[in-house]
Amino acid sequence: MSGPDISVVICVYTEDRWEDILAAVSSVRAQAYPALETLLVVDHNEALLDRLTKEYKESGDGGGEVRVLANAGPRGLSAGRNTGIAASYGEVIAFLDDDAVAERDWLRHFAAGYADPNVMAVGGRTEPVWASGRRPAWFPEEFDWVVGCTYRGLPRGRVKVRNVLGGNASFRRTAFDFAGGFATGIGRDGDRLPLGGEETELCIRLTRARPDAVLLIDDRAVIHHRVPGPRERFRYFRTRTYAEGLSKALVARSVGTDKGLESERRYTTRVLPAGVARGLRDAVLARPGGAGRAGAIVAGVLTAAGGYVVGSVRARRGGVTYSVVGIEGEAGVEGEAGIEGGSR
Question: What interhelical angle do 234-255 and 290-317 show, nearest 10?
Fold first, then answer.
């Protein structure tokens, strides 16, 4: 099968997701377009590192090699991804969340996108798998990004985008030569606020370094992402939207507000008002959850805006350092910001 060799990186951090991790690896090894290798990067958890090393000690047969390695950088998802990139051999590096499974043609659709040499990244569609078995009636599809999934308002088909979404994405290896790795200090680390935005910052930095770079989303490249029970609750929704505001403030500080908030402006001025209108219409028609969805959209906007204001103030005052380094470890770009790291 012609096309680029693809390494798949799965960053893991807790034994609580043991069965999910095994399922994620199995879905990669069952791909119609075989992965060159799967790299499990363990984030500062010796017990999990030892357990996975034993599990995949002899893994070369059927579905490619599985390699287990420790995060070589500071605690967090960005450093884990950078570790995986540096250790991988593929021309393309794909990323899969540790609590997701990929459909059989996931890598095939990624590979097809790289037929154009200007394509530097290809992302896919992420579908939620609700722990309760169904979407909560109040939970608006416009906010599925809260649970790490593709949300209403993203373009359909195979289209150019500003940034891909990190849990279901791939990059040409040379993209990291142009832009450096994922920035540490922006994304998720540990068990605090569920921050994000590191892939957005990387994608904007990439297109600045190489203006002719093309970034795609192909919604045929599908993964299914597990949403645990606590994340179906409004409390998590509120916490995550606030954290997103904090993250956007740091991304805007890194790359500027024009690029940092370009897509968000369309989302807040077009997609969300339409969602509120649908919710109110459903409420008038006595459809379940209509008023709740409309209210959740308004609450989400206000909470994210509050987080952005707080994050902007902290960033101006200075605080936690974020940094971008070359994947091989060369010194890179550094900056100051006032936002603490978050959790997965």
Answer: 40
Strands 214-227 and 119-130: parallel
Summarised one tens digit per residue, pLDDT across range 98-125 is 999 999 999 999 999 999 999 999 999 9
pLDDT tens figures, 242-293? 999 988 887 777 666 565 466 778 788 889 999 999 999 999 999 999 999 9
Indicate the length of the chain as a whole number: 344
Backbone torsions φ then ψ of 96, nearest 5 degrees? -130, 135
Q: Which two tokens stand for residue 20?
A: 């999910």
What whole-number distance in Å separates Cα of residue 264 and Cα of residue 326?
28
Q: How far apart are CA 73 and CA 83, in angstroms?
A: 7
Distances 126 to 165, 250, 292, 337 between C-alpha atoms, Å: 9, 25, 24, 30
Beta-bridged to residue 203, according to DSSP, are: none
Angle at 76 between CA 343 and CA 312, to 5 degrees: 65
Nearest to 259 by CA among 210, 315, 203, 327: 203
CA-CA-CA-CA dihedral for 185, 232, 301, 196, to nearest 10: 10
pLDDT in tens, 153-194: 988 999 999 999 889 999 999 999 999 999 886 655 444 555
**Residue 162: both structure tokens together:** 């500003």
pTM, two decimal places: 0.88
Task: To the nearest 10°, report the CA torsion of 48, 49, 53, 55.
Answer: 10
Left (φ > 0), alpha (ψ -120 to 50) or beta: where does 190 sit? left
35 contact partners, CB below 8 Å, separation of at least 6: 6, 7, 8, 28, 29, 63, 64, 90, 94, 107
